Amino acid sequence: MIDLHTHSIFSDGELIPSELVARAVDRGYKAIAITDHVDSSNLTSVVPNVVRVANDLNRYWSIVVIPGVEITHVPPEMIADIAKEARSLGAKVVLVHGETIVEPVRKGTNRAAIEAGVDILAHPGLIAEEDVILAKERGVALEITARKGHSLTNGHVAKMALKHAASLVINTDTHAPDDLTDRSMAERILKAAGIGESDIPGIFKNSEDIVLKLQK
Fold it and tell me: Would you say the pTM of this structure is higher than 0.85?
């Protein structure tokens, strides 16, 4: 299992990064990204700490630990600059908290994230078809999520992405220990989103390709 969207105590997760990664190892994960919520208030404190612990853990464990961020509830006009600063501080993977239907995310966030060239647009809700097409053109992956609430629109995201051959990934958006999952459950979530068995291996490969790209 590769999971590119998890949270630690550096935002609203329950575990320190080392325990989060230890539990991922125990679940058989091959790679995990720690992507705590950030805006301009905490970016410069969160990213260096996550980079430091990721470097430490990568020295001693076989799992690949990727430092990242999830830009969250930031005005769309600021997303590109925050993403650029996150990368300059050492974030290897940049996510944006998309327009989930269960939170008051500002309209235009999905489009701004795609235009900023982030790596993954998390739980993009009822994403517009033209934004899916742009995500395909810009190489921005769209997320199928295991997280309750955000997952309500998985079917819509899957349908639009498959229609336009946009890249899909599946993540847990882990906040608590029991949120981590295994590949079997991830496959069931993808099937529940209406994704056929023939398309599922490609979705896992999309995550593998992102990890390989980030390691270069």
Answer: yes
